[in-house]
Structures are given as structure tokens and as C-alpha cells.
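--- STAGE predict ---
source: upstream dedup step, 1 unique chain passed
mode: sequence only
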Amino acid sequence: MIYKSLLRPILFQLPPETAHELALKSLCSALSFPSAKNIFAARYQSSPFGELKRFGLAFANPVGLAAGFDKNGRAADALSSLGFGFVEVGTVTNLPQSGNEKPRLFRLPEDRALINRLGFNNCGAHELVANVNRHRPDCVLGVNIGKSRSVPIEAAIPDYLATFETVYDVADYIAVNVSSPNTPSLRELQRQDLLSELLGALQDRNRDLALKKSVGMRPLLVKIAPDLSESDLESIIDVATRAEVAGIVATNTTLSRDGLRTSAGRVQAHGAGGLSGAPLRNRSNDVISFIYRATGGKLPIVGVGGVFTAAHAWEKIVAGASLIQLYTGFIYEGPGVAKKINEGLRRIISKEGFASLDEAVGSRASLVT
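--- STAGE serialize ---
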């Protein structure tokens, strides 16, 4: 309540990117002492479903923080103290890059949404690794990797491989971002031929590194866009299955501006970028359900897009997601959102008569069109 009544109004008076940096630095400062982390962990952490096994990893709960909030891995430990079952840092590229020109992040409060065209601004893979080693979270850590802006599409594979190898040792899983709308030509990598070549090369390197280091292969996930046709999704599912990826993250931000409450003039003034938050919710659910049905529930799905409450998370779970992520919901709902969603999901599952969270996954996928 303090966040919504006091802190959020103050933060929303600032430019969005300024507010984001202030919130991130404040969180890191507040939780820089072990005693503070313990206090926050006692207040916010929640494991109402016991240990959840997903693609060979153990999750304390199904609610994660999506990539984009902590691009550089500087606050991963602090964020894990807020009750997230996993934190995904990045998107990170091989070398540091500044991203697009500012302003590049915009709020649409009437729609509980954001528009961003950040453009993978990040410190580079080597510095991210150093940051994570200093700020290791007490939960599953994913690293989201993307194509460097300066690298042409035909040179994307060596670029991804370099980043993959750099972050390998600190990542519990690695998510391949081929779906941001803010890096020129990136979404071309969702084409069947290009995606097959990229994922194949990454899995080959994954096997080589696992053998060299005498460790298990890192679960490899691919993050896709919501703006795909069913035939496009079918192609991606086919490639992902043949490449034996561990799961699909569905979905990234959308280019659509349909159905917004915010005036068309204001939306146009913000310009290009990916839209996240509440307007993305239904499309994300449709994509999740399609993937679940097409794979017979055999390919784990991380559901992202428009999650603010337990009811929203539940929609994604019954559509076929076995894990949930949020970013915009965290901005609007505040630091207690993960625990609220977890406790709310526990009540919903009991009310709906399911014995476990796993039993509920995909239970309504056939009813979603």
C-alpha cells in the first residue's frame, strides 16, 4: 500500500528511465547489508507449492522477474530478496552498447502499460558476469542474450556464441532473445532457416562447454514475439523441438497499438517501440495456449505479458505456462507483487480443486482460441 500511495506517485513524476535507475539504485542500497536482505526475505519470500522442477532446475515458486529490469546484473541478489522464484538479467550483448537515443521509455498509465525502445543498452557480457559474481541471487538465475546492434544479421551467430560462452558459468539457464523490436533486423532471426542455424550452433557450443567443464548443459530457452502468425509459430515450434531447446518464453513486447485507452495523439508522440503490460495480456495468453496445444504440453513455456495479479498469472498457467514472468506489473504493483501473486495462486488452485500447480498447467488450453 505504501508503494502505491506514496512511492509510485513520486517515481511517476520522474522521467521513466530516471525513475527506473533511481529505484534500482535505491533497492541495491537498501539491501546492501545481509540483515536488510534477511528482513526483506522474511517479509516477501513465498513457496506455497514446494519445490518446482522445470527443465532440470528447482524453483522455489513460479513467479520470476523478466529480462529488462536488471539489464546488467547489478541488483540480482536484491531482487531475489523480494520473493521472485527466478530472476532473468539482460538482455546482454557481447560488447557494451548504449542503446537508442533518449527518451526511449514511456508510461501509459491509463493502459497500465509501457512503451520502450531501449535497444539493448547494457554493460556487455564480461561486466555482467562480474556483476553477477558480486551479486549472486538466492534463486534461479537466467541470462538473456541478444544480438549486438553493430553486428549484421549474417554475423549474428558468432556474436551470440561469444556472449553465450561468456555468461555460461554464471547462468542457470540462458534465454535467446530474437524478438525485441528495438534492434534493427533482430526479428528476422525468428525465420525458420535462421533460427534453426542459430539454435543449432548454440546447442553445439552448449554440448562442447558442458563436456569441457564436466557440467550439465545449460537449459536453452528462446524468447519469441507476440506478433507472429500461427504458421510462424508452427515453424518456431518445429525448430525449437528439433534443436531440443528447454523451453519457450512467450512473449516479448508487441508492436501493436490496438485497443489502447491512451489517446492516439499521445501514443503517436511516444513513437516506435515495444508495448508491454495489460494490453499484451490476451495475445500472450493466446500464444501460450497455441504452443501448449501444438507440443502436447511437452515444451515448457514461460508466460510473460500483462501479469499484475494472481488472476492474471492463473490465466497463463491454465493456458499452458509452467512459469510466469513480469516486468511492467512490477513497475505498477511494487515490491510485494511476487508474494501477492504466489499467495493468490495458492488460493485459486485450492478453490479450483487442483491438487498442485503442475496439475493446473494447460488445463484450459483447449478452450482458448
